[in-house]
Each structure stands twice: as structure tokens, then as C-alpha cells.
Amino acid sequence: MSERRIVDLLYWLVVSLCIVIGVLGIFSIGMPFLLIGATLGVVAPFRGERHRFWPPLVAVVLFIAGYVLVAPLGCTTSATISETSAVDVQEGSTTCTNLLGIDYSRPGIYNPPLWPALLAASMAAAAGFVASRILLGRRR
Fold first, then answer.
1. Do residue 118 and residue 108 come from a single domain?
2. Which of 1, 12, 64, 92 counts the highest number of beta carbons within 10 A?
3. Could you give phi then psi for residue 105, rounded to 5 degrees?
4. Helix crossing, 30-42 with 50-70: angle to 10°?
5. Backbone dihedral angles phi then psi of residue 76, each to the nearest 5 degrees
6. Residue 99 covered by a domain
């Protein structure tokens, strides 16, 4: 077996492994693996062209990193009941944490928005794509 065929086989093995892990773990940690595996599969024809192969991969990795850094990872809701005269009043608050320390806490019971994380992830992906395209384009 030639060296090129071994490299091709290993490449597609990595792609397949990422996709399988992504599908099996879709409800926990699978989505990043699925995205990277799918991207590797799509850019496979451009493996010999660095300026076409790497920018999409950089963009996907930075999208995942941007989302994980900004998205609320864990939320807790607490409620207290205060008895005033004959009426019980329920007061609640939601506290959410993320890796950057952005405060998504609010009074009441609610689900924090995901659009800030998607916006930050999209901006990171676009910046990474453009920067890697420029850097790899200069080296040609």
C-alpha cells in the first residue's frame, strides 16, 4: 500500500470517527465533533491547497470556542414564598454562569437568550476565516 493511500485512509478514518462520536454524543459533547467531522469531509478535496483547506476549519473551531465561551452553560432557578396577610407571593430568580463570567441572571424564572453566544461565535468564525485566508494567501 502506498504512503498516499495510507494518509487518505487515516484522514477518512478521522472524519468518520468525528462524525460517529458527534452523532452518538449529540445531546452532550457531540456537536463539536460532528461539526468538525462534517467540515473535514467537505474540505477533503482541497487538502493539497492550504489556502482553501484551513480557513473553513479555523472558522468552525473558532465558532465552537466562541459559542462555548459566551453561552450560558448552567442555570439555577430558586423560588421563595413570602406570606403577606392572606396571599402567598412566589418570588423567583434565575442565575446563569458561563466561562467568561457574563451575568445572565435575572429576577423571575426565564431561559437566557442564546443570540449573544451565536453572534460572538459567528464574529469569531468570520474573523478567523478572513485572518487565516490572508495569512495563508501571503505564503503562496
1. no
2. 64
3. -75, 145
4. 160
5. -125, 140
6. yes
Instruction: Give the C-alpha separation, 91 to 82, whole Å.
Output: 8
DSSP 70-123: HS--EEEEEEEEEEETTEEEEEEEEEEE-TT-----EESS----SHHHHHHHHH
Q: How many domains does the chain have?
A: 3
Classify 64 as helix, strand or coil.
Answer: helix
Same domain, 2 and 32: yes
pTM of the model: 0.83
Supply the pLDDT for residue 48. Answer: 87
Amino acid 56 reads: P
Question: What residues make up the domain containing 89?
Answer: 73-113
Q: Are residues 109 and 86 in the same domain?
A: yes
Give the count of beta carbons closer than 10 Å to the beta carbon of residue 123: 13
Rg of the chain in Å (alpha carbons): 22
- Bridge pairing between strands 74-84 and 106-107: unpaired
Mean pLDDT per 10-residue interval, the chain, length 140 residues? 88 96 92 96 92 94 94 81 64 82 79 90 97 82
